[in-house]
Amino acid sequence: MSRDIRPFIESDWPAVWPIIEAVCRAGETYTYPVDIDEQTARSYWIEPPPGATVVLEEDGEVLGTAKMGPNRPGNGAHVGTASFMVADAARGRGVGRALGEHVIAWHREQGFRGIQFNAVVESNAAAVHLWQDLGFGIVGTVPGAFRSPAHGYTGLHVMYLPLAEA
Fold first, then answer.
1. Using an 8 Å Cβ cutoff, are 67 and 52 in contact?
2. For position 119, which CATH number holds?
3. Which among 97, 107, 145, 163 could bridge 156 via Cys, Cβ 3.0 to 4.6 Å?
4. What whole-number distance in Å separates Cα of residue 123 and Cα of residue 121?
5. What is the distance between the alpha carbons of residues 141 and 132, in angstroms, rounded to a whole number?
């Protein structure tokens, strides 16, 4: 088994789009529209510099993707953010963890002072557990800010990982 996390290239899009489409259609983990079209998804997902988009590839198959960069421009650009999507067939195989570890290392290498996730769905227990396991804390929850098809109105956590002293 050969697993590699590498920068997204244009020829990856045909493998990345079905991952994004499936996650969005499920409607359980992202605030993106459930009926998102391919062009809109691409504009949301491909992160321009100084950010980056990556894919995790195993034996030539794209199993997951992440995007990362500054959470805010200007005087807030020292805190990063990131988003992650994993193919349904690859869940439970460490893809999200590997992408998470990669993103944390990338932010450190780029000199960010912390990483803020703006909207981790409270009912997405696997993601909340993973991020806490990687050192993120829940700094606040916006009650009922997410409408889950399965859970109704649920909270969105803001999670933070300090990379340098404040």
1. yes
2. 3.40.630.30
3. 145
4. 6
5. 14
**Residue 32: helix, strand or coil by DSSP?**
coil
Pull the structure tokens for residue 155: 């909270």
The tokens describing 10, both together, are: 């244009």
Residue 124 is given by DSSP the state -
Sign of CA dihedral 105, 67, 7, 91: positive
| pLDDT tens digit sequence for 109-141 | 999 999 999 999 999 999 999 999 999 999 999
Residue 83 C-alpha from the chain's centroid: 2
Give the chain's domain count: 1
The model's confidence at residue 26, banded by pLDDT at 50, 70 and 90, is very high
Under 8 Å between Cβ of 47 and 69: yes
- Could you list the residue range(s) of the whole structural domain that residue 154 is in? 3-162
